[in-house]
Every structure is written in structure tokens, then in C-alpha cells.
Amino acid sequence: MKKHTQLTVRKASALLLSLAMGLSLAACGGDASSSAAAGTDATAENAQTEATDTADSGEKVHITYAFWGGEDEAANTQKTLDVFNASQDRIEVEAIPIPWETYMEKLNTMATGGQLPDCALMSEAGVLQWAEQGMLLDISDMYGPDDPQPLDCVTYTYEGKPVAYATANNSLVMFYNKDMFDAANVEYPPTDVANAWTWDEFVDVAKQLTLDSSGRNAKDPNFDPNSIVQYGCMVENLTWQLEVWCRSNGSGFYSEDGSTVTINEDAAVEALQAVADLYLVDHVAPLSTGLTDDGVQRSLIAGTCAMTTNGAWNIGTCLEEARNEGLNYGVAVLPYMKDKVTICTGGPNVVFSQSEHPEEAMEFIKWYSSEENSWDSLIAKGIWMPITEPYYTDEEMTKKWLENPSYPAYEESKPVLCDYVRDYAVPTSWYYTNNTVDFNALLGSVLGDVWTGKTTAREAIDANYDALVAAHDGMG
Predict the structure, then answer these.
(1) Which of 39, 119, 212, 412 is disulfide-compatible with 361, CB 3.0–4.6 A?
(2) Which CATH class is domain 4-169+346-388?
(3) CA 330 to CA 412: how far, in whole Å?
(4) CB-CB neighbours of 371 under 10 Å
């Protein structure tokens, strides 16, 4: 599978494809949701009969798993599948690699033709659209009472039932350059959430770390904002990541149950404006338009910013290599406005309702999602975070996870990646809210002029609120 940063770089185009897929499903042969739901019982009955016949014959049940990737990724994924295939005598899984650029289009074509694979990796924001169309199985029974349970914040739910679990629990944190802090004689950002900076404290520290070409920081009355050579911070303003600041300020993109658009609330608008003002007013952050997911590379690794907010997956996808090349970085909890909070996300594996072998597909997905089967290549490398509770509650298992050379020191990484995430992480809205595809795309466009100061967050949201509501309601 591709690293998470690579997934998110191209997320916007994939989400639009996912939306197109949902619309075409609704237009094909009547109500796809009703027909899929009506066929689920028959599918399960046929699958049970076929499974019995297969068991009697001694043959393995053959299932298929789709994912995005090229030849190298296909080979690596198939190696993992081969381990599963060799581990038991009932199921054989075949990998179906599909290029990222045509992934959702291909699944759409397969869905309308009744030829979907048994299971697949999905785009985060497309899950609930598929669930609404009746294309995903309820997986409430995937984990038994004696199994380690997935965290609530990694569970995709539709109408109160889980339809997918994220394969990784990737949360937003803050990264910082220790050498820049040392040079300014400023204390490092807190790792203990009890001591988390307020937003004002964060901005004040960022001013101390923002330098002009004469070496004056942004608190100096003679500071020149037109000759900045080092910024104090960069807050990633990709649309989906902005949600954390609205949540922190006591609001959000949506109501708690996802039914109502609340981004027009004063608290949400104020949070968005505060992010914009880091560049426009405080002069502590570079201009960022929220269009590319390479914020860590453009800020911390490039040596242009002392702090940056982004996903924990960057530890393994780019920061380990940067550290080997001399970057002395640390990890800390996010600052907060009113409430201490972070958000998490992760690409899910799903089982399709068209599958003739739903039980076997679910068994494979559960195996494939277990930490031990992605340990060396993903979790120990700092690309994925575990999804089950014991890694966040059992010190021995936490040490197994975080006492790996890819991570910052255990005493630094545990309070941020374990304790903070366990107690303060909430799921990104696409875990429980439908039509985030349209909404996020429109919001990103709406906020473009806010980042450059051509309009305010209040003016932009008010002028486009009805369109944002229509996008949320699936009418955009």
C-alpha cells in the first residue's frame, strides 16, 4: 500500500471520483440501496451453501482484495497475502491492484456490473457514500468480546453500525525543530497535554522564533515582515485538517451527530480566521493555500519553519530520513483554543455486500488489519499507529510500539502518540458524516481568498453557507 502522505496528496481527485461513483450507483437500475439490501440475505444464504460445499470438497474458498498501487506495491501486497494464504487451509486471497488514478472509477464499473471484489481498501471520504448505497456489509461481529477492541476513533459508522475500521490510527500532532528552539533559548513545546499551550501562547512562541534578515524576531518593534528568513510555525490548512481547530474552539464543521452544518457558528469562523491570521496579521507563518499535502517537507524539513502541525504518519514517511540527514526534531501535542483535542484518520478496508463469501472476506480483513501483520513495514517504521486499545493502555505493548528507532525518544513520544491520542482524539468527520467529498472540495475553494486576505472567513462562509449545506445534504 502507498504511504499515507502519498494517499492524501492525491485525495482530492479520488474523492471526486468517489462522489461520481455514488451518483452513478443511484442512477443505475433503480434504487441501488434497496436492491443491495434485498440481495444481502440471499447472498449470505448462497455464501453459506457454497462455503459448506467447498469445505466438503477440501478446496479453499477463493476471495479477492482490491487496492491501489503499481507493480511493486502489488508484489509486496501479494507477499503479505501469501502469508495469510499459508496460515490456514480454508481461504485463498488474490490481490487485485488498480492504478490510483482510475481506482474509484474501476470500482464503480465493477459495482454496477455486480463484479466487485470481495473486499478492498477504500478512500476515507467515500466509505459512507458506499454504505448509504447498501454496498458495504455491517461488520459489527468482526471483533468478538475476547478480541482486542479497535478504538472508537477508528470506527466508520453508518446508521449507528460499524461498516469499516481504519487500518491505522493516524492523528494530528505538532513537530518542531529543536535546534531552532535552542538557538532562540525558548523551551520546547509541551508533550504532556496537561501543559498544552493555549493558542495565544503558541502564537507568542511563534513570534519569538520568526526572524527577519537582520535577526530580529517578530516581537521586536523593528521587525521587518517583508524580509522574513525563518517562520515560527506553519499550521497545515488542508481542508480536512482544519476541522481540528474548529473542534478545539468549541464548534466544528458539523454537529456532533453529523446531521447539521455548523461551520457558520462564530466559534468555527473564528478558528479559521485565526489560522489565516498567522500569515496575515501575526507574520509568523508562510502563505499556505491548502492545496498540497507536503507541509512537513515545505516547512520543517526545508528549514523554513520552527514548528508545523500535521499527521503522525510523517514520522515514518519523511522525518526519519530527514533525521538521518541531520534534522533534530521533536513531537508535541497541539495547542488549543478552548478544548484540547486532536483528530485522527486512516484508510479503511471494507467488505462488499456483493461478496459471495462475506464471512471469509471479513476473516481476512480482520487478519490484514491486525497490528502484527503490518508491524515491521508500517507500525515500527512510524507510518501507521495501532488501532486496538491494548497498545494505548498496556505499558508493555506501548513500549513494544514506541521503543523503535524510527520514533522520537519514548519519554517524548508516549505522552503525545499514546496518552494524548487515547484520551483526546476524535474521529475526522468522514467517519460518521456522509457527503464530505463535496463539502471539503467546496470549502477548500471557498477558503482560498481567506488565506490571501482578499476576504475574511466570516464573509466567505456566510456567502457560501447555503452551498455548503447543499453539499452536505448531497445536493451540491
Answers:
(1) 119
(2) alpha beta
(3) 8
(4) 22
